[in-house]
Specification:
This protein is of the alpha/beta class and 392 residues long. The protein has helices spanning 46-51, 78-88, 103-112, 139-147, 152-168, 172-183, 188-195, 200-210, 216-226, 258-267, 283-287, 289-297, 343-354; strands spanning 2-8, 14-21, 27-32, 54-59, 94-99, 118-124, 244-250, 272-276, 302-307, 310-315, 326-330, 336-338, 366-368, 382-385, 388-391. An eight-stranded mixed sheet has the order 1-2-4-3-5-6-7-8, with helices on both faces. A three-stranded antiparallel sheet has the order 9-10-11, with helices on one face. The longest helix has 17 residues, at 152-168. It is globular, with a radius of gyration of 22 Å.
């Protein structure tokens, strides 16, 4: 892992980012951290990304960590910063993951970056436009979103008093004690997740780093969160017309309520919503990292070998080939849509290297529909016979 990479932008600003996960990646995910937070947040996903051969790039947004403050920035300024980083790393195509307050930035990327580069977007515990309401949110969060658009100076003062000064105290125990007491007031699942010894040091590190420059970055971001976003969710190109978008949310989330997420989901036809029962803001995400990553990267092609009444489904392309990612399922439960024919050759090579058995080997590049009614929508198969691509 590399945690202090920097790039100088054309306007002279510095962007700092961390790189976690695999050194030999098959896919790249850009991680958009929460609010307030910093690049270190993505460290909690490092081991999982390494396992799945994913490179996880996590930038500090302007005003956080080591990234320069950007006066009067807007959500739609962020995609250009993301492209500057991926171009620096010579990454042609990538995925976007936005967690909590990273949601507006993930969706801004979906708005501004073409599907020739952006392969898929996932939002976990997302924050959505305030017009969708604040039901289920803690009162302090509601007040913050209401006040910030009217007085960023007041919000800066409040952030400094509550978090900024403790975060910059040379004695880390000062912040840890304050942070621990704050988490005791949260959802039990979130409290237990944050205080898990495996995650606690990272939560403390990412929170302290977010205020290393002061609180101006956080207060401006609060202003953006509570104001007009500069784009409508209905404008986003999702599904057939654009990029796959998946939303995850706990039904007991006290930070960003489920009600707003459901309204946002309704405003974005083609998006998928997974509601995690009995879970809070953070608890499900840390339990289901593998599931979230596999779902995000399953927007890549699947390899399917048919054998009698079963099909062997092997995720290919971005995901590392592992036995646990191979599933035998009844054929009638699956429907297929032709997708990225050129990936067939890569898929064939991967399958043959692993010597996966199949009585009648037919390769299909497809997306898998999880809906039970999807079998009504069988659209066509692409196969390889004698090293030639054929359509059955």
């Amino acid at each position: 892992m590399k945690e202090n990479e920097k790039i100088t932008l054309e306007d002279g600003r510095t962007l700092c980012y961390a790189v976690y996960g695999s050194d030999t990646p098959r896919a790249t995910v850009i991680y958009n951290h929460g609010f307030p937070s910093s690049r270190f947040e993505a460290k909690m996903w490092h081991d999982h990304c390494t396992k799945h051969k994913i490179r996880l790039v996590s930038p500090d947004r302007p005003g956080y960590g080591q990234s320069s403050f950007q006066k009067d920035r807007r959500f739609l300024d962020w995609p250009a910063d993301v492209l500057a980083i991926v171009d620096r790393l010579q990454i042609k195509q990538f995925y976007i993951l936005g967690v909590s307050g990273g949601s507006p930035y993930a969706l801004a990327c979906l708005k501004e970056i073409g599907k020739d580069r952006l392969l898929g977007v996932t939002v976990a515990s997302g924050l959505y436009p305030i017009k969708y309401g604040t039901a289920g949110m803690m009162l302090p969060t509601r007040i913050l979103l209401w006040v910030a658009p009217w007085s960023t100076k007041l919000v800066t003062f409040l952030f400094e008093f509550a978090m900024g000064k403790p975060a910059r105290n040379p004695d880390p125990k000062v912040f840890e004690d304050m942070f621990s007491k704050e988490m005791d007031r949260r959802h039990p699942g979130d409290r237990d997740a944050v205080k898990d010894p495996a995650y606690w040091p990272t939560f403390v590190q990412m929170a302290r780093e977010s205020f290393v420059q002061g609180s101006e970055g956080s207060s401006w971001e609060a202003y953006l969160n509570g104001s007009d976003w500069g784009f409508e969710l209905e404008e986003l190109r999702i599904g057939k017309e654009g990029v796959k978008l998946t939303l995850w949310h706990g039904d007991e989330d006290m930070n960003t309520g489920l009600d707003a997420t459901k309204k946002a989901h309704a405003a974005m036809p083609g998006s998928e919503l997974h509601v995690c029962e009995g879970e809070g803001h953070l608890s499900y995400a840390l339990k289901r990292v593998d599931e979230i990553l596999i779902d995000l990267l399953s927007f890549s092609p699947y390899l399917v070998a048919s054998a009698g009444n079963e099909v062997l489904v092997v995720r290919t392309g971005s995901l590392v080939q592992e036995e646990k990612q191979v599933h035998r399922v009844p054929k009638e439960r699956w429907a297929y849509r032709v997708f990225q024919v050129l990936e067939v050759f890569k898929a064939l090579q991967a399958l043959m290297e692993r010597q996966v058995p199949g009585a009648h080997l037919v390769l299909k590049v497809c997306q898998v529909y999880k809906d039970k009614e999807a079998n009504k929508e069988l659209e066509g198969n692409v196969g390889i016979r004698d090293n030639k691509v054929t359509k059955d």
